[in-house]
């Protein structure tokens, strides 16, 4: 309490001001407690945000690694399929050449042995043509089949990659 010389109204005013100052001090201490709680909550929120960001970065890295692995697998698969198709075509061409050469030898032997039988020669030539045409058809069918299946398989793999 403050000793104040003067009228009683002034004493009451001083007492009221003292009471107001005590209320302000009390409110300030409560505000400091609230401020401390808010600061602690801000620290917790910052820690949670940092943890979430770290988890997001880890998830992004995992997704990137998975995408890279899928792309590498698709590229390797396409290379293997292409090499396989080329090898199949080469084998088919070699078989056609060998069979055509064998057929030519057979035709030559038949012509020499059966020179008189022109009909036999015509039949052999027709058989050779049928064999060659058949082999060409087989080559075309196999090449088209391999190419179409490889393209379909590549498109499906790329769609799976895009959808994942």
From TrEMBL:
Keyword annotations from UniProtKB, A to Z: Membrane, Transmembrane, Transmembrane helix
Domain of life: Eukaryota
Transmembrane segments annotated in the record for this chain: 41-72, 132-163
The keyword Transmembrane appears for this protein: yes
The keyword Transmembrane helix appears for this protein: yes
Name of the protein in its database record: ABC transmembrane type-1 domain-containing protein
């Amino acid at each position: 309490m403050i000793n104040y010389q003067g009228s009683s109204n002034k004493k009451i005013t001083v007492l009221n001001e003292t009471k107001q100052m005590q209320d302000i001090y009390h409110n300030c201490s409560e505000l400091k407690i609230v401020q401390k709680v808010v600061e602690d909550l801000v620290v917790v929120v910052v820690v949670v945000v940092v943890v979430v960001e770290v988890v997001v970065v880890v998830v992004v890295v995992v997704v990137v690694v998975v995408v890279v692995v899928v792309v590498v697998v698709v590229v390797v698969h396409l290379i293997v399929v292409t090499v396989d198709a080329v090898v199949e075509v080469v084998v088919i061409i070699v078989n056609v050449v060998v069979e055509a050469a064998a057929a030519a030898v057979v035709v030559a032997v038949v012509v020499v042995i059966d020179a008189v039988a022109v009909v036999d020669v015509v039949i052999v030539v027709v058989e050779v043509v049928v064999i060659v045409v058949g082999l060409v058809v087989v080559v075309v069918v196999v090449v088209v089949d391999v190419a179409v299946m490889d393209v379909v398989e590549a498109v499906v793999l790329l769609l799976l990659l895009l959808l994942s």
